């Protein structure tokens, strides 16, 4: 089955700096890669996603890149703010199945 | 904005007891899922459900677990004889197409504590 690895497990940046979180996946049939933000005790919330026919997608301060050949995708947050502090999960879904396989999460801390 | 709702928000149960976690998916969605998250760990897939039957399940989803769509709106997860290791946050999710094509919307979760 699909296996998703995520790095780093924790990331501390100063307000205004950029943050990058990286994920790799194993199943070359995966075709949809969402990123979720989870605040303490709350539900995972989709912040951005990318499909396998696209290499990059941007939404204001957030961008995601996908390298299908290398089977990795990354989340980029620019001009970080304290409210960006949360746990971020990447996920992937195989082409023929509907479940999401999540990475292990990255705890992002934005310090003043 | 439509959302997935789950009840209860927190359930405490004694080991060996049965629990039923309830979910109301978004009304026009066709695919339903249960995930769980042990405290401090990643979100893990349990089961997906489409057209009134299980479409996929993980190795976690053993004979102690079952799902049901008893009416047109509710989607339930039953754990027959709870164990301490079942303590986790359980999330229900729904999507209008297979998860490979569109967003899965998550409910706010039910925190299950087995004592």
The oligomeric state is: heterodimer
* General shape of chain A: globular
The number of helical elements of chain A comes to: 0
N- to C-terminal separation of chain A?
A: 41 Å
Task: Provide the low-confidence segments of chain A as ranges.
Answer: none
What's the helical proportion of residues of chain A? under 10%
Average pLDDT figure of chain A: 93
The biggest sheet of chain B amounts to: 7 strands, mixed
Taking all Cα atoms into account, the compactness measure Rg of chain B is: 13 Å
Q: Helical segment tally of chain B?
A: 0
The averaged pLDDT of chain B comes out at 92
How much of the polypeptide of chain A forms β-strand, as a percent range?
A: over 45%
Number of strands of chain B: 11
Largest interface: A-B, 26 and 26 residues
| Rg of chain A computed from alpha carbons, rounded to a whole number of angstroms | 13 Å
| Strand-pairing-aware structural class of chain B | mainly beta
Most strands sheet of chain A: 6 strands, mixed
SS strand fraction of chain B: over 45%
Query: How are helices and strands ordered from N to C of chain A?
Result: EEEEEEEEEEE
């Amino acid at each position: 089955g699909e296996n998703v690895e995520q790095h780093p497990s924790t990331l501390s940046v100063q307000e205004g700096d950029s943050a990058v979180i990286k994920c790799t996946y194993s199943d070359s049939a995966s075709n949809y890669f969402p990123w979720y933000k989870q605040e303490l005790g709350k539900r995972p919330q989709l912040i951005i996603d990318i499909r396998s026919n696209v290499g990059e997608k941007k939404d204001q301060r957030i961008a995601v890149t996908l390298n299908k050949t290398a089977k990795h995708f990354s989340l980029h947050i620019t001009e970080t703010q304290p409210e960006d502090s949360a746990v971020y999960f990447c996920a992937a879904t195989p082409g023929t199945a509907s479940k999401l396989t999540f990475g292990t999460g990255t705890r992002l801390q934005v310090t003043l | 904005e439509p959302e997935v709702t789950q009840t209860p928000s927190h359930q405490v149960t004694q080991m060996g007891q049965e629990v039923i976690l309830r979910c109301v998916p978004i009304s026009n969605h066709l695919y339903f899922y249960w995930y769980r998250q042990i405290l401090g760990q990643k979100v893990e897939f349990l089961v997906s459900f489409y057209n009134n039957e299980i479409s996929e399940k993980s190795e976690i989803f053993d004979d102690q677990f079952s799902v049901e769509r008893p009416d047109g709106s509710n989607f339930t997860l039953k754990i027959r004889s709870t164990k301490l290791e079942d303590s986790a946050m359980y999330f229900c999710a729904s999507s209008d197409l297979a998860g490979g094509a569109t967003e899965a919307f998550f409910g706010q979760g039910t925190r299950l504590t087995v004592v």
